[in-house]
## 1
Amino acid sequence: MTLSEILPTIQSLPRADKLRLIQLLAADVARDEGIALDVADKTVPIWSPHDSLQGAATLLRVLDEDKVAS
Amino acid sequence: MSESQRFPYVEIDPSLGAASALPYAPIALELDGNVANVSALVDSGAALNVLPYDVGVQLGAVWEQHTIPVQLAGNLANSDARAILVMATIGQFTPVRLAFAWTRNNQVPVILGQVNFFMEFDVCFFRSQLAFEVKPKGSTQNS
C-alpha cells in the first residue's frame, strides 16, 4: 500500500484522529531510531470532571427522587 | 458476593507502555433490557460518573427524554449533559443503580466517579502492581 493510496483516508479522519496518528507515527519512528521523545510538550487531554460538584449534586438529587418513587 | 475482585490496569497506548496504564474496569450497563459491555475508567478524582453519548444510544436512551441538565466542568463543560440512571454490573457483584452525566461528547471514556460509583463500591489501587481491587460497600470480607 502506498502513501497516495491511504492519503485520502487519512485526510478524511477527524482532527483528533489526525493528531493521534501524528503522535503514533512520531513515537514509532523515534522507537526505531532509539530516540527518546521529549514528552514535555505532549498534549494529553484530561477528561476527568474533577470539579463538577454542581453536576454531582444534581445526580444525587435524581437518585434520591428515583429512590422515593420506586 | 461480597469479596473484593481484582482488576489489572490497562495500557491504553502500547508505545508508552506502563506510563499509559490506567484503571479500566469491565462493566455491563443495562437500560430497559438493552445492555452495553464497556471498559470504564475508575476515576477517584472525578466528581461524578460520565457516560459518552454513543454508549447511551447503544442502551436505547433517547436524548430528548432525559431532561435534567447536568453541569460539567473542564474539557466537558462545552458539551451538554443530562442525568440518566442505569443498572451496572461489575465483576461478579450484584447490579447497582448508577447515575451518569450523559454527555453529548464521544471523546470521553465511560468514567466511574465519586457520585455514585465510589458511594457504592470501595476501591483500592495498587499502582505499583498495576492492579486495583473493588468490593461493594459494607462488605467486610477480603479476597
## 2
Amino acid sequence: MDLGKKTEENIVNNFTIALAGNPNCGKTSIFNNITGGKQQIGNWPGVTVERKEGKLALPQGEARVVDLPGIYSLVASSQDEQVARDFLMGGEVSLIVNVVDSSNLERNLYLTTQLLELNIPMVILLNMYDLSIQKGLDIDSCLMQRLLSVPVLPINAINKQDNQAIKDFFIEMPIKKGYKETLSLPNELEDFLNKWSSLVVDNDLYIDKKNALIRYLEGDESYLKSSLSENLTKQMNQEIKELESLLKDPSDVILADYRYGFINGICQKTVRIKKTVTSISAQIDGVVLNKYLGIPIFLVVMYMSFGFAMTLGNYFVSYFDRFFGWLFVDSLRGLLEGMSSPQWIISLVAEGMGAGLQTVATFVPVIFFMFFILSILEDSGYMARAAFITDRFMKSIGLPGKSFVPKLVGFGCTVPAIMATRTLEKKRDRYMTIFMVPFMSCGARFPVYAMLTASFFPQSSGLIVFSIYLLGIVLAILTGLLLKNSLFKGEISEFIMELPPYHQPRFKHIMLHTWRRLRDFIFRAGKVILLMVFILGFFNSLGIDGSFGNENNDKSLLTTVGKAVTPVFKPMGIEQNNWPATVGLFTGIFAKEAALGTMTSLYSQIEGQRIEETSINQLIQRYFNPWSAYAFMIFVLIYCPCLAALAAAFREMGAMMTLLMSVYLTSLAWIGATVFYQVAHGHDYKWVIISIFMLIFMVISLRSLGGWADKKVKQ
Amino acid sequence: MTLIDKNPHEQCVITGFAPGSKKYRARLLAMGLTRGTRVKLIRRAPMGDPLEIELRGFRLTLRRDEASIVLIQIGRHDGRGPHGFGKKNRGKHCE
C-alpha cells in the first residue's frame, strides 16, 4: 500500500498538518476526532513505528493529517523521535499542531521550544484543560499566545463541542511561520553559534542554521552531516570542548537549562497555582505500587485479565472453528462435489484454502479478547505500573519491564503475545522478547500434555504438567541470557518512563485499537497462514500414488515423509513403529493441538478399530513409555511454533529472523528431549555428548551472527 | 550525593550530572531534570529498583543506574522565584 501517493491525488493545495506532542498528551484522541473514520494506518518507511494518516475537510480544500509518534524531544535518540524529526524536516509539513497536556505544562513545553525553532507555521492545542483546572492550575492561554507568538487554543479532546472549535481554529487562525527565538544563551555560546552558522554551507536546511547548530550541541548530528567538511567539524568539536570547559558544563546540559529557563519564565507568567491537590492517581499508586502489595496485586490483575480474555476467547473458538469449518471446508467441498469437480480440486480448495481460512478464523476470538484486555490495561495507565513492578526482574535478562506482559500473554496464545511486543520501543527488545515468548506454553499445547500425562502419570498429572510449564520458564530465562550475550548484544535500553495518571479507559479508543490489531492479523499474518496451511494441507492430502483425500491416513505424502524422518527422533525415544508421533509433530505446526488428532487417528488406523476415549490411553501406552512420553512433551513445549505464530513473527521480524528462531527452537527441543530421555532411560550417552556438541555449536553460531542481528536491529 | 542515596519523600534539588554520563543524559534533560529542579523520591519498586520520582508536577520512573548520574542536594531552594503573578486581563478571545 502506497500511503503517500494515494492521498496526494485527493488533496487540494497539498496541505499537510502534522500532529506533534508528548506521549499521553491526548494527541491520538484529537487525531481520531478531527479525521473521523477516514484513516489509513501503515508503518513509517523502514521502521515498525505505526504511522496514522487521515483527512480533514477545510474550506480551502482537504487537508492531510499525519499523527506523529508521541515524543519528548526532537533530538533523535529513539526511533519514534527520529521518525518525527525526519517527517518535520522533510518539507511536506504545512502546519504543525503541537498538542500540549496542560496538566503537565512544563515538560510538554520542552518539545514546543524545539518545534518553534523549525520555521514551520504552528499552533498549540492546550489539551486536557479541565484536568489542569482540577489540578488547581489556572492557565492564561491568551498571554501564552502572545508570549510564544503562535495561536494557542485551550481544549478538551474528550468534549465533542471542542471538536468543532478545533476545526474552526484551523480555518480562522492566521497561517504564519511559527518561528520564535526562544533561547537567550550565554555570550560565549552566542558568539560560538554566530561564528559557526556563517560557516555552515548547506542552504537547503529547513531549520535555521543557528538552530541546526543548537541541535548539534544537544546531541543530534544529523542536521550538519553534509554541511561541514571533516576538517571544519574537527575544528568545531575542538571549540565546543573549549567552550564546555569554560562554561564548566556540557553543552547539552546548558541548553536544556536554558530551554527550561525559558519555559519557567512562560509558566511563571501564565500559570497560577490556585490550590495543590493530591491526585487520585498518587493515592491509587500508594496501594498498587506498595512495597508488599505491589507484586501480589500485579499477579492478581494479570491472572484476572488474561484469565478472562482466554476464557471468553476459548468459549468462542469452538464456535468459530465449527462455523468456519462448515463454511469454508464442508460447504465448499459439498459445493465442489455438487459441481462434480475432480478430487484434486476439492482437496486443494476445500482442504487447502478452506482449512487455511478456518485456521485464521479460529484465532480471531482469542486475539480480539487478548487485545481488548491489553488495550484496557494500556489505556488505563496500569501497564506503566506493571512495567515498574517487573522491571527489576526483566533487567537481569537485559530487557525492559514492559516485556513481561507479552510473555504472560504467551501462556494464553503465542500469536497475540508476539503482536503485543509492539508495545516495546526498541527493536532489539522486541526481537528478544519474540524469541522468548514461544517458551511460555500456550493453551493449544495443553491438550497434548493432558493426553500423555493421563496415559502415564494419572496420579500426578498436575505436577507433571506444571513441571513442563516451569521448564518453559527456565528455558526462556536461559534463552534470554544467551541472546543477551550472543545474538542481541546491544545496549540494555534505558528505563526512563513517565507514570501517566490513571484514567477511565475510553471504549471507542479501545475498540479502535483492538480492531486495528485484529485487522492486521487477519490481512497480513493471515496471508502467510493461508499459504502455509495450503502447502502443508496439500502434502497431507496428496497420496504417494498421486491420489487426493488422504488426510491423516498412512498413504499421504506427509505420512511417508513422517515415516522417513522418524529415525531422527529415535534418540528421544520415538521408535520406528511410532511414526504417527512424527506425523503429529508435523501437523502440530498447523496448530499444536492438531498433533493429538493426527496421532490418535493414525494409531486407530494402524490398530484397525474405532476407539473410545478410554482406550486412547491404552493405545498411547503401546507406543510410548513414561520417559519417551515426557521427552515428547519437552519436544512439543519447545519446538517450532505453530504457523499462525510464525506468521506473526514474520510480520514483526522478517523472514530470516523467523527462520533462525524456528531452527533455534527446534534444535533446542531435540537437544532437550534427547538429553532427558537418554539420561533418564536410554543410557546411550553418545547422544548426550552429541547434544552437548550441538548446543555448543548453536551458541557459537548465535554469537557469530551477532553482527548481522545488530544491523537488522538498527535498521 | 545522587538521587539513589536519599530517603523517600525528602525534598531535594538537582545540582548537576555526574561527569561522563552522556548516555542517559539526553532523555533525562528532555524530561526536565535540569539544574535547580526540585525532585522528590516517591518510592522504590517492590524489588528495590527502579525508582519513582516526582518533578515539575509529574511522576517519572528510572532505574538506579540512570538515577545515579543525577547529583542532588537536600533542600527546597531552587533559585527560582515563587509562582504567582498580578492581575491579568483574561478572556476567551485573544488577538
## 3
Amino acid sequence: MTSNCEYNPSLLKVLEKSVLIRKTEETLLDLFSKGRLNGTVHTCIGQEYMGAILSEVLIDGDVVFSNHRCHGHYIGRTDDVEGLILEVMGSSLGAVSGVGGSQHLYHEKGFYSNGILGGMTPVAAGYAHTLKNSNNLVCFFIGDGATGEGVFYEALNLISKFSPPIIIINENNNYSQSTSRSETFFGDIKSRVEGFGLEFRKTNIWNLDDFVDDLTMAFNDIRSSKKPIYVEVDCYRLKAHSKGDDDRDINEINEYFEKDPINLFKNQKNKIYKEYEESANKRIESFLEKHTSVTNDVAISKKIVVNDDSFFWIETEVQSNKRVNDLIYEAISENMDENKDLMMIGEDIEHPYGGAFKISRDLSANFPERVFNMPDSEQAIAGFGNGLSLGGKIPICEIMFGDFMGLIFDQWLNHAAKFQKMYGNKFEVPIIFRTPMGGKRGYGPTHSQNIEKHFLGIPNTQVISINPRNAPKIIYDTLLKTIDRPTIVIENKLDYTRKDLPISSHSGYKYKKTNTKIYDLKYSIENQEPDITMVCWGGLVCDMELLINDLTEKEEIVVEMICPTMLYPLNIQPIVESTLKTKKLLIVEDDNPFGTLGSEIIAQLKCLNIEFITIQLNTANDIIPSSRILEEKHYVTNQEVYNTAKEFFLK
Amino acid sequence: MITKIIYEQQGVSDQEVEVISLLFNDYDEVAEGDIIAEIETSKTVVEILASSKGLIKNSVELNSTIQAGDIIAIIGDSAEEIDGEKDKEVKLDVSEKIEKSISAKALKIAKSNNLTEDDLKKLNITSVEELNEHIKSDMSDNSSSLNQDFFAQYTEQSSPKNKLSEIESLKLAQSKTLPCTCSILIEDFCIEAFSKKHNLYFNNIFPVLASICSDELMKYRNLNGFFHDNKKYIYEEVNIGFTLDADEYLQVPVVHNCEKLNSEELKNTFIELLTASITGKMTISMMSKPTFVISDLSAVGDCFFHTPLLAPYTSAILGTAIDKNTSRLSLTLTYDHQMSSGKEALLFLESIRTKLSI
C-alpha cells in the first residue's frame, strides 16, 4: 500500500473491524500459550480483511459459509467476539455451546463453517439455491488448498447450472498447511473457473482501498444480476497454519509483514490505529475478566441401546395390492402436493425418463421447481441437498444405486450427520437419501451390494429399510411428514415390482406391526409358541415369508420372524421379546459377514443377559459375481435357510 | 412262460409315444427277434422286437399313445397262459415313490418319548398330531383296562384279614416287582423345630411329606403307578397311604386325591384317619387304593435308614427315619425298577429335600 492511500470512511471501518479481528486472534493464541484453551485454532492473522468487509457488504438474510480459518469471517458477519472466545474456551455459552469449537461455527444471523476442506462448496451452492427469489446471497470462503478437492469442481459445475446468488471468495495465501501452492496447483485458476462458465475476478489485499472497492462492487453486482461470481483474493497469513507449525522462510514472512495493511495503517495512521486497538483490547479484556473459568452442562448421551418395550403389536393395514414402486411414488407425490418445501433431486429423475427405477416418474412435470435432474456428481448432489436442508427445504436425494453411497459418505458423515449438534443443537437437518440396494440381477460387483452396515451407528442419523410388507407408502408418508434428522431409506431393486400382499399362509402366519411411528414387523402364528426367532429385513423379507411357510408345513417348526424397519437406531425389544420365548435366534442377511446389523443384534442381546443360541447366515465373504450361476452360489438360498433352520430346531 | 414287452423310454422327450403299427394279430406265433410293433418317437420310428418266441397278444391299440413303462404285448407258451395274464399291469415306476417325510417337530417330540425315527416310520407317523394321538392312545390303552378286573381284586387285597394274608400279599407284590432302593440324608433336621413350624400332630411329618410328594408325583409319574403284564400303568390320582403298626397287622390308611387337597385339608384328613385308627373305627374304604405309600418309623424311635417293602399295586414307597442324636432325616425310596430308574428316584428325593428346606 502506498502512502497516498485513501483512508476513506469505508476503508477505516474495514480496518477497525480488521483490528478487532486481529486482537481477538492474538488473544486466542495468548490464551493457548497460557494453557487456558485446548484443541486448536487456525488464525486468520494477515487475512482479516475478507472477514472485516462482510459487515459492510452483507444485509440481513445473507449467509456466510466458511472453513477452518473462519474466525475473521465469523466476527465480520456477526460481531460475536465474545461468543467466539467462549466457544474456543469450551463454554456452554459459546457460539455453539462448546460442541463445535473453533472450526465449526454457526450463527443465526447466517454463518456456517466446517473443517472438511472444500466440503461446504456444494452446501453453500444448495443454500444459495433457496435464496434465488430473494434479495439475499451466499458468501462462500475457500482457501487455495481447497481447489485440490474434487467436490469443489462438482459444485462449480452445479453453480454454473443453477446460477444461484453466490459469491465465492478464494483467499489465495499460497499455502496449504505446509505445502506451497506451486507444488500442488497446476494450470491456472482463472481458466478453471471460466471453464465452468463462471465469472472470474481477481484482487488482492495489498492495496486495501482497491480491495474494498473491488469487493463492494462484486457484492453489488451479484445483488443486481443474481449471477455467481468467483473472486480470487491474493493474501498471506502471517502466522502458522494452526499453532506453531510454520516452516515457511522467515524472510518471506517478514516481507509480507511489512506489506500487511494493518501494519501499514499502524505506521501511517498510528493515532487512529491506537484507538481501534485500545477499543478492541478493552472489549476483550473486560469480557475475559468476567470469564476466568468455564462450565459446560451440555448433555452427552451415552446410552445407545434402545430397549423400548412401551409398544404393543397391532394389526397391519389392509394391503393395497400395489407394487412397491407405485407406493413410493404415491407417497412422495402426495406429500409434494401438501408440503411446498419438499424437493427431490437426483440423476435421470426428470419426466419422461422418470428415474432409473421409475420412482420419480412425472414428479418433475408436476413440480418443476422442486424436482430436477442433477449432473452425475453424487458428492455434490449430497452437498447440495445438505444446503437445501439448511435453507429450510426437505430434500429427497436419490442415489441411483446403493453402491454409489460411498461417493456421498463425507457429506453424510461430516456434514449432514454433524450439523445439528455441532452447531449448538439449534435446528434440525431434515434430509433424505433414498437408494436401492440388493443383487440377484446379475449387475455385478459394483451395482448389487447391500452396504447398509457401513452407514449404521452414525449418531444423530437414522437408517430405514423398506420392504413390500411394511407398507412403504405409510412409512414414506410418516417420514416425509415428521422427519427431523438425516435419514437414509434403503429400498431393494427386486422388490420394486413386487406387490404388497403377503402370500396366503395355510399355517396361519400373519403380519403384525408395532404401534410406533416407524414400525417394525412380526410374522407369526397367533397363539402358537414359536420354536425359532428369525430376523431379516429389506430384500429378504418376501423370500423368508415363503420359506417360513414351507418350513412350518413340512417340518411343523413354528417361526417368529421379526423384520425391523428402523435399522438404526434399532429398538431391540421386539427381538428380545421373541428370543425370550424361543431361545433360538436365526439371523439371515444379504450382506457379507463381519460387523453387520446381525452381529450388533447378537451383541446387544448378550449384553442384556438374554439366554439364547444363535446362527448368523450371510452371503459369501467376497465380492458379488455377475454370472448368474456364481451369483446363486454367493447368496444364501432358501434351501440353505431351510436346512439350517431345521438343524437348529433339532439341536 | 410269460414274457412282457415293455416300452422303455427312448429319448429325453419321449415319455409319451404313438403306436403306429402292430405287425401281428393276437395269438399269432412269433419268433425271437421278430418286429412286433413300431412306435414313433420325437426323432424317428422305432421297431419293437419280440424278446422270446411263442404266442403273442397285443396289449395296446393301434395309433394309441403310450407312456414309458406301458406293456406293448405279452408272449406266452399257450393261449390260456396269455389270456390268464393281466395285460394292463402296473407301470414301471420311473420316479421314486415320494414318501411324506417326518416333520422335524415330530422327530423331536418322539425323541423325548424314547421313540426313534424308525419307530415313527413303522407306525406311519409323519406329523405331531399323529404322534400325539399315538402317545395318548398308548397311555389310555393302559388306563382303560385299569377300571375293569384289577380294582376288583385290588380292593380286596388292601384289607388283609390277618397277618398271613398280609404276608401273602406283600410277597406277591415283591415277586411282581424289581425293587431297588435309593436314599438321601437331610442333615441338621430338628424335628422339634420342624414340628413347631408346621404345627404337626405328635411330631408326625406325614402331612408335610404327603403334600410335597403329591406335587412331585405329578411330575415323576412312574412312581405313581404299577407294572403289570409287561405294561406300565400310571394312576391319574395320587392317593397316599401311611403305615400304622396296629396290633394285629399293618394298617395303611389312605388320604385320597392328595393332588386336589391343600396342605390344611390334607393334614385334617390325616388326623381324621389317625383318630379313626386309634378309636378302632378304621373302614375298608379308608384303606383302599393307595397309589403311593409313606412309611415312617420315627414314631417308634431313632433310626438311620428305613427301607420298606413295596405295597401291592404301587411302584414306589417312601421310608422315612429320623435320628434325633445326629439331627438327621433320612428318606429312602423303594421303587420298582420296571417302572422307574435310580435317576428318577434320586431326582424325586432331591425335590423333596428342596421343598422341605423351604
